[in-house]
Amino acid sequence: MVHDSPERPRPPPRQARRGSKSDLPQDDLTLRTDDVDPETSATDEDDEARLPDAEEPAEGVVEGTLATGHAAIENAVRLAPTSPGVYRMLNAVNDVLYVGKAKNVKKRLSSYARANAPLAARILRMIAATTHVEIVSTTTETEALLLEANLIKQLRPRFNVQLRDDKSFPYILITGDHWAPQILKHRGAQTRPGRYFGPFASAGAVNRTITALQRAFLIRSCTDGFFESRTRPCLLYQIKRCSGPCTREIDFPGYSELVREATEFLSGRSHAVKELLAAEMEKASGELEFETAALYRDRLAALSAIQSQQGINPRTVEEADVFAIHQEGGYSCVEVFFFRTGQNWGNRAYFPKAEKTFTPEEVLSSFLAQFYDDKPPPKLILLSHEIEETALLADALSVKAGYKVEVSVPKRGEKRELVGHALTNAREALGRKLADTATQGRLLEAMVTTLGLPHTPKRIEVYDNSHIQGTNAVGAMIVAGPDGFMKNQYRKFNIKSEGLTPGDDYGMMREVLERRFKRLLKPPEGDAAKVKADDDSFPQWPDLVIIDGGRGQLNAVREIFQNLGLTQVSLMAVAKGPERDAGRETLFMPDREAIKLEPRDPVLYFIQRLRDEAHRFVIGSHRKLRKKDIREAGLQEIPGIGPSRKRALLHHFGTLKEIERASIADLGKVPGVSAESARKIFEFFHAQPG
Question: How far apart are CA 83 and CA 47, in angstroms?
Fold first, then answer.
C-alpha cells in the first residue's frame, strides 16, 4: 500500500552552528538485547510460532451424545434460512465449538442432522458436544466467507483450523511531512503522510533493509525532534550512513534527489537506479574526483547487498504472496513468501492449529481466509494445493481490496518454481520445529528426574525484580513451556507498596507473587466464569515457580504460598555461584538438601536460560520506568545540582536527552560543573539496577 505524500516542506533557513558533541540519533546503530522495551519483546512477531497443542476436550465440559447433538441441530434446521449465512455450534456452557459458512444454511445443517451420514470422527465429536446452533444470514456467500474468517479469529473455535501468531507486518515508511524525509520501520495504521513499502516478513528484514538503504542513499533515520536540535552532524554522518541534512551538509535539491532514488529503488526500479549510480561513478572517476567515485561505489555495493540478502528475486512476478503447506507428524506448516515490486521481501512459517484429520487443502483454505482478514491482499496469490473454493476466495478478496485478486496453483514456469521453493521451506521449517519441540520436551522430562518433580511441567514461571536503592522498583514474570518461551504470557509488576523499606527484595517479591496468584485464586464473575484455559489451551497455573535467590528467598516465597493455600505448585530458588560464575549455581527446593549440578549438565543450562531471560526482561522493564521518571523529574533529583548548574547544563546541551548521553569529559566542559559534579551527573543517568 502506498500513500501519496503531500508537497514536501521547504527547509528552514540555515542556522549558525554552535559547539555540540557529535552523537547518535535516537535510533541507535544496533538493537541492544539488554535494553529492549519489555512490552515489545513480549509480543514481537519475529518470534517463531509454536506448534499447536494436542487436541483435548475442554476441562470441565461434559460431552453429550450423538442423539442429543442431532436433536439440537434438527431444531436449528427447522428455522434455518435457505440463503447464505454463517452458523455457530455451541456446547452446554456456550463455548463456540465450530464456525461454518454455507451458500444454503438449511441444507448444510441438514447434512449434520442425518443420523446415519458417513462423517469423520472429528465431526461426530463436534455433533455430540453441540447443544444449540446460532445462525447469521448474509446477502452473499462472499460475505459469509469474510464473516466466517473474522469469527474464527475472534472466537477460536475448538473444531476449526486456527491461524495463530497472526501479528501485523512491518513496512518501510519514507515520511512526507518534513522537508527532509525520514526512513523508518512502521507498523499499524498507515495514517502518517508518506510512502509505505511492504509488507516485510519480519522486523529483522526491515531493519537490515533500512540499514543498507541508509548506506546506499544516505537518508536520515532520526526523529524530527532529534533532527531539529542538531548543531553538528551526528555519528551516522561520520560513518557515511546519513548525508547530514540537519546541519545542511547537503542542500535541499541534493537531499530530494537521494529520496527520489530510494523511492525508485523500493518501487521496483532498482536496475535504473543502479545504472544511474554506475554512470555517476564513471563520470566522477573520469574527472579524477576519486573520493566522489568511491562514494558512488560504496552506494552501489550497498544496493547489491540488499538484493543478495533477498535471495530469489522473480523475473516475471511483480507482486504476489506465495503459500505452500506441508504436513508431517499430525502437524501443518504454512510457509508464506512476500514478493513486491519484483523483490523478495521475506518469508515466514506458520503452524496453524488443526486436527490431524484435516487435509492440506482444508487447512490452507481456512488459513487463507483468516490470513487476509485484517491485511490487504496482493493482486496475485500462488498456492501449492488446489483448494475447493478458489473462485469464492478470489471474489471475496477482490471485494475487500477494491481491485481484482487472482488465486491460482501454477503448473509450470517461474511461478511454479516459486511455489516449489516455498514448499521446500515449509518442509524444512516443520522439521526444525518438530526437532526443537522434541529437544524441549526431553529437557522438561529430565527436570522431573533431576529435581524430583511430581510430573513434567507444562508451564514454568520465573520471577525476578529490579531497582536502584529501592527506586523505580519493578518485578517481572517470564513463562516457558514445551515450545520454549511464551512471550505473550510475560508480565511486569510496578511495585506499589508504600511501606516497603528501600531495597527490600523479600517485600517486593511478596507483592509480586500475591498480586499474581490472588488474581488466579479469585473466583471469576460473569462471562469470565466459564472454565477455560488460556489461548491455545496453554495452562494458566504454573507447575513450577523459579525465583532468583537462595535459601532465604525460597523460605520467604514458601511462606507466601502457604498463606495463599498453594500446595500443588513446585518451588525452586536459583542462587548464583561464587563471583556470579555461570555453571556454579546452587538450586534450593523445600525440605531438600541444596542441589549442585555439573557445569555442563543440560538441565542446569536450561535453568540458566530461564533465569537469564527473566533478568533480561526485568532489567528492560526497570530501565524503561527509570527513563520515564528521569525525563519527568528533570535534573532536580541529582544531588548537588542546583538551579545555576541546571541552567548551565541545559544551555550547553540544549535538551535533557543530550545531557543523558554526554560523557563525563563532555559534562566537565560545562562552565560551573566540576569533575566531581560531572561524575555524579553521569552516574545518575547510568547507574546499574540491582
Answer: 42
